[in-house]
């Protein structure tokens, strides 16, 4: 996305003895041995991210605490945050991040008394944000420099190593850190600067994972797939409809194509949709009268990308990503809800059901397999399919009947069930022979948004519904 230019207990704010224990909730992340997924402390990690881009620019500590608590309770485990959005970047309590907007001059003041607003600076505040995120079991996917700096020619091969060194040295000890190089820009416009930032951070901090957040309808793999500092790919499938997509090699709303393309590259690296269409944002972003993306749309993007092989998914909501308040000034895109109201947007609350289902089956062995679907459709009629050795999942956005090729997983017989992406509830279909082809008819009347996932399990596995 290109941007258009009650007090809590003091102990909560000052509890600096807690971070060591809190970090146990966010073990170090690493890429799985097969190069397709992530693990946290040796266990499968399904990235369920929220784009809280302007958290550092908009929220005080009480609001930050409420936001973290809510998203953690909803099943999110990653918050994507801009460290430096524009030269004037500042926190409402901690003040400016830079001296005169200069990337070479972070504004660091003596002391860091977290009990007293005004006694800690921007970087002390970011320290606190990491601590509180860890306490809620949240990782911070930190974008050091947003693309505006590159647009203003303030981010270049001269400034990139300076700010990269500063943040890497300060935050390399944070276990709940994920580096997100880039800042919603095509890497081809400033390739040497972004590469310099990645190399600088990696030289100082070889432990934390790093990716690149590109502009809309692009992937990090296009420029940096073989870069040593890039551990996994991230693409921005964007906010346009099929009809609005005028990009070269337009893929419209088919975000699964980016997943498939990234996974076809060597060496093997995981991939994720880091910015699909946001809930409650106009189609095409800056086209005000256009309809807005709704819960069914954000579910579709999530299920399509994950079943195509993505290791997780990032969700976004228009008011939340910019922390808009009713009566205040919006950064962009005509938000209507206050951010705290928008935390309960239905699509955002439904994201956890995909995560729950995927983690309920063997995670690291899962592969996309469209051969499960016989006579597949296109666009909204396409059924996405994935499987492990003893299970398979097929997702229909419209709920139209579809035919499945059985015999792709183990077992003489398979248990079939419908999984509701809106509620996470399961409806048993029954036991069927694991051979030949079979027509499955989802509940309800076929229509966009009547989405259902067919779940097939080797009956001998004895998995609970």
Automatic annotation (TrEMBL):
Domain Apiosidase-like catalytic: 32-364
Domain Putative collagen-binding: 367-457
Single annotated GO MF: hydrolase activity
Secretion signal, residue range per the UniProt entry: 1-22
Key words, A-Z: Hydrolase, Signal
Matching InterPro entries: Apiosidase-like_cat_dom, Collagen-bd_put, GH
Domain of life: Bacteria
Presence of the UniProt keyword rRNA-binding in the record: no
Key word Signal present: yes
Pfam families xref list: Apiosidase (PF13204), Collagen_bind_2 (PF12904)
Protein name: Glycoside hydrolase family 140 protein
């Amino acid at each position: 996305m290109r941007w258009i230019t009650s007090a809590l207990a003091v102990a909560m704010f000052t509890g600096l003895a807690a971070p060591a224990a809190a970090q146990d909730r966010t073990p170090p992340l690493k890429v799985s041995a097969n190069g397709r997924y992530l693990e946290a402390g040796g266990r499968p990690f399904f990235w369920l991210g929220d784009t809280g881009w302007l958290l550092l620019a908009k929220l005080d500590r009480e609001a930050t605490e409420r936001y973290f608590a809510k998203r953690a309770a909803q099943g999110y485990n990653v918050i994507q945050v801009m460290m430096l959005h524009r030269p004037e970047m500042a926190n409402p309590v901690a003040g400016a991040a830079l001296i005169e907007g200069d990337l070479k001059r972070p504004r660091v003041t003596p002391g860091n008394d977290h009990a007293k607003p005004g006694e800690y600076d921007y970087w002390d505040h970011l320290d606190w944000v990491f601590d509180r995120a860890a306490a809620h079991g949240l990782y911070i996917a930190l974008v050091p420099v947003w693309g505006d700096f590159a647009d203003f020619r303030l981010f270049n091969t001269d400034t990139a190593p300076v700010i990269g060194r500063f943040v890497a040295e300060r935050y390399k000890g944070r276990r709940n850190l994920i580096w997100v190089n880039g800042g919603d820009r095509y890497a081809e416009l400033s390739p040497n600067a972004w590469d310099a930032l990645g190399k600088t951070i990696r030289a100082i901090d070889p432990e934390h994972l790093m990716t690149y957040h590109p502009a809309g309808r692009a992937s990090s793999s296009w420029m940096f797939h073989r870069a040593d500092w890039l551990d996994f790919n991230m693409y921005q499938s964007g906010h346009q409809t099929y009809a609005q997509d005028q990009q070269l090699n337009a893929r419209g709303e088919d975000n699964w194509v980016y997943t498939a393309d990234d996974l076809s590259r060597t060496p093997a690296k995981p991939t994720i949709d880091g910015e699909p269409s946001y809930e409650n944002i106009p189609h095409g972003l800056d086209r005000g009268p256009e309809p807005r993306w709704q819960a069914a749309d954000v579910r579709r993007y999530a299920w399509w990308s994950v079943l195509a092989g993505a290791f997780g998914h990032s969700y976004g909501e228009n008011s939340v990503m910019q922390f808009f308040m009713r009566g205040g000034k919006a950064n962009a895109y005509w938000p209507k809800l206050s951010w705290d109201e928008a935390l309960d947007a239905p699509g955002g609350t439904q994201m956890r059901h995909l995560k729950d289902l995927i983690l309920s089956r063997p995670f690291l062995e899962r592969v996309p397999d469209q051969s499960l679907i016989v006579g597949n459709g296109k666009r909204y009629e396409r059924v996405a399919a994935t499987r492990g050795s003893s299970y398979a999942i097929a997702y229909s956005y419209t709920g139209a009947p579809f035919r499945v090729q059985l015999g792709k997983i183990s077992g003489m017989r398979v248990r079939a069930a419908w999984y509701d992406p809106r509620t996470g509830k399961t409806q048993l279909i029954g036991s069927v022979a694991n051979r030949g082809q079979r027509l499955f008819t989802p509940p309800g009347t076929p229509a966009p948004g009547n989405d259902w996932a067919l779940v097939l399990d080797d009956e001998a596995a004895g998995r609970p519904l």
